[in-house]
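Hi team, as promised in this morning's meeting, here are the two structures we talked about. I've kept the exact order from the run log so nobody has to guess. The first one is mostly here for context; it's the second one we should focus on when we meet again. Sequence first, then the predicted structure tokens.
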Amino acid sequence: MVHALARALKELGVPHPLHIHGSNLGVPGNIGSTLDTIAALEGLPAHLTHIQFHAYGTEGPKKFSSAALQIAEAVNANPQISIDVGQIMFGQTVTASGDTMRQHAQSDLANPRKWVGADIELMAGCGVVPFRYREQSYVNALQWVIGLEIFLLVKNPWQVVLTTDHPNGGPFTSYPHLIRLLMDRSFREEQLAKLHPDVVAGCALKSISRELTMEEVAIMTRSGPAKLLGLTDRGHLAEGAAADIAIYREHADREAMFRTPEWVFKDGTLVARSGTLLATPVGGTHFVEPGYDSAIEKTLRKHWKDHAAINFDNVAITHDELCSCCNGGRLLPAECFTGGGEA
């Protein structure tokens, strides 16, 4: 299934490759299914999301260990693979997921002790569980270590996107702190010393000396994601680019530097200055619309009638619905069949 989907997207020329939410999320030992997924692609491009939650081994007395090295080796050996990390950040957040039953299963861990779940005609759902990641929790501390190890062990920054799986691993407002951890080894070691002692004693992170450069951070947060999504007018400052620009004042404390940019431009419009919001322009909706053989609809209608709870005619999204959903923003179709493969 993974191979067929990845091949279909490649041959259609869809700019972003197959986006894989791996199996066994959060389960000790899930490194096996993660590596099996990469192997099943047989060299086809794909993006594996929040990989930190899929990089767990079963070594040690607690049967829960870091498999960051194995993930990094697999990514380094497969240049057609990209990942985002899903770094966890200590403190309060909420976990949000379309997997209602997974959220129900972890509702006992809610902090504070309340949560909400919903089901939509057995076809979809959602669950929101408040959660606090703690430095002295062995599991949480190891998750924090695993994410940083992955960031620092994958060699090519174009294959790694900086994320916290917002909000599940931490809010995106914690990105400046995460960037400092990756750029400043001494600061990273200070934070590591605060963790559960069993994690500190056995982790590989303390021996990793790499510090990301400003260029590598720019790739992981701007250029790389734009390239992965096929947004040729984003992630660079060349003539004709969209002019999405953040300008920072140099500061030795990278967290302070990235927390408050001096200027932020969106499509050339100044939207923030020194932390003050000046404008809220409406963005656009990017979509792909490859052609297909309409004869398949007869088969799909029968399958839908037998197995689904929603009328088939209510599934397709029309341009009118796209327009109403994008709040007056532009519709930005992406071209297909442009060098994607045999079609």
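And here is the second protein, the one for discussion:
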Amino acid sequence: MRTWRFKPLHAAVMALALAGGAAGVAGWQPGMLLPAASAQAQAQPQPAANPVLVQGLPDFSPLVDRVGPSVVNIRTTEKIRRSGGATGFPGMDEDMLEFFRRFGLPVPNMPRSPGQQMPDEGEGEERPSGVGSGFILSSDGYIMTNAHVIDGASEVIVTLPDQREFKAKVVGADKRTDVAVVKIEAKGLPAVKIGDVSRLRVGEWVMAIGSPFGLESTVTAGIVSAKQRDTGDYLPFIQTDVAINPGNSGGPLINMRGEVVGINSQIYSRSGGFMGISFAIPMDEAIRVSDQLRATGKVTRGRIGVQIGPVDKDVAESIGLGKATGALVSAVESDSPAAKAGLQPGDVIVQFDGKAIDKVSDLPRLVGGTKPGSRSSVTVFRRGKELRLPITIAEVPSDDAQVAQAGGDSSASPKVQAPSLGLGVAELTAAQKKSLGLDAGVRVTVAEGPAARAGLREGDVILALANSEVANVPGFEQALNSIDARKPVNVLVRRGEWAQYVLIRPQGR
């Protein structure tokens, strides 16, 4: 083993002086630093310190104190009709039935002996149907929440942080943006402050208050993960990693200035619970919707009457567009604003009213936000040239008008259930086909479990299932019998004037 021995500092320096001459260490005494070494140490450049960009973690308690009194709990009830045991085995309660419905499983029927009569359906009764959140828009009792929180409710009950309860009146709900406004009879309520979404930055701290799983006034926090997140809906969402769970829906997303910048609306999950990705409706868009709901009880949107699709890189290069941008027109509705303006299938819409169309979802948002009857313009790329075409915006029919016309009673129409997909469908009546301009398809009457997660809802029209055209209910059943229920299935869906493909994934896939 080799052992290292270290001499005292003064002995080492004396040895150096003897070897190099007295000039190197003239005047040196024990305890003194060598002049040359000292000068060299002073001449060494010191590395510049990087500025500290983030110091410590924020304290959210002042935000809770400011915004907490404005956040409410929302409970809903709905009327149900009991079938007297026609569905499910004896002893199967509502929770078990809900389990089967939620996960798209076929509900087992109670065995019956030949000739056995089933009890008549009972009278409608109230039962709890959901829990959500909301926040006070104005001191006179207007409250904002999600449309899906109050959808189908026969009664809406609002609980304030001071535990006062009110029955709320639904002012209006817009399913396309998932925004709803309800009203309670109260005065002097603490209203939230609305923030400027354009100032919101990725990486900024944000906070949520809501009632996850019915636990009122729960506070969670995180950062903005992304802005303008495209999910295929009318709105570009704010993505965060704030913990959001069932019951948080409709609650506020709050910035560090105590301002509401979004409505917590959706999560991405493979398990049904929080996985670190949450989506909030931007508050500027939500306010525009709520203003219309408060004024008229509904939202009016513009339309031009085209079916569109994305422009991929190969198509863009082949037509000389250069880059994959814009919205490719696949069909033009006859006698529509687009037809009157001269748009043609194969056109690529690259601008609307002077605003660039970077991706296909930009167009319906811009057109939908334009007041019907106003004059605008579209710029299209056609056969190597750009053309600017003037166009007059029409109005999108309401969801109800899409499927309900005078004399169009569908209660007696043939129906079929597809529990594995969470779907129920019925025939379109002649009046509905005329209203929609269709000669084929089936109307969605139930959308739950896998279908609901894919974005389908009641009133949608299914045009194709698993690449098979669906002309009617028998056609739907035929296509349904040919699919593998364990694998995702594509569905071509018509909603309003727009058609798109969605993918229904069985639970756990």
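Starting points for discussion:
The longest strand covers residues 125-136.
The mean pLDDT is 80.
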